[in-house]
Structure prediction request, 219 residues.
Amino acid sequence: MIPTLPKNNQMIVIDGVDGSGKGVQSKLLYEALSVISSQVLLTREPGGSPAAEDIRKLLVEGEPDKWDSLTELLLMYASRRSHLVDTIWPMLAKGGWVISDRYADSSRAFQGIAGSLGLDLVEKIHYEVVGSFEPELVLILDIPESIALKRAFGRGGKEDRFEKKGNEYHAKVRQAFLQIATGNPNRYHVIDANQSIPVVTQEIFTVLNHHFNINLKVQ
Ligand code: TMP
Prediction:
């Protein structure tokens, strides 16, 4: 059950290929929104609730062929359901801001398009799990996958299962995000992420300031 949410919710998603700078930009956005509101939540997918973080570990560690695309999709939606019910919807119901580092467009791009399941199947499962709820704004950080993957691998760590799927897979992911974004220009904004961090931040703040009639400033 979706709790009663404000008509125009304050959920902002930052999405894009691995290594596009989502993590850094989400954090900068969190800091800037925290200046104007005491109710700001920074979260991520897969993960974002204690149970969903357990599922995250299954998804992001290990060998790329550990799960096929459909199993990945089902695990992503199990984690998303927990994230929505336990974390996102309660915050939106209180009138707060939610910034999510990835959300459902990652399932569309990674499992639906790059993973060849097709968008129809993703939309069917999406509707059963999420209903008609949509985030207010989705910012797609766009950058050539070859540059982004170098950055992502440079970080090291165990969470590299998707990075190891290779350049061809990630080239499809990048194109998928661009394709998805053309579907709804009010909700989706593509930001050129192959620029310096402050320039990307400024572009994100400009979109938000216009959309929400606020005045975020780059520090
Ligand atoms: P992260 O490294 O950005 O936290 O994301 C972990 C990986 O999970 C990333 O490579 C993209 C992938 N992913 C999907 O394949 N489908 C999804 O629905 C989500 C949310 C993430």
Summary: The first strand starts at residue 11 and ends at 16. DSSP finds eight helices and five strands in the chain.
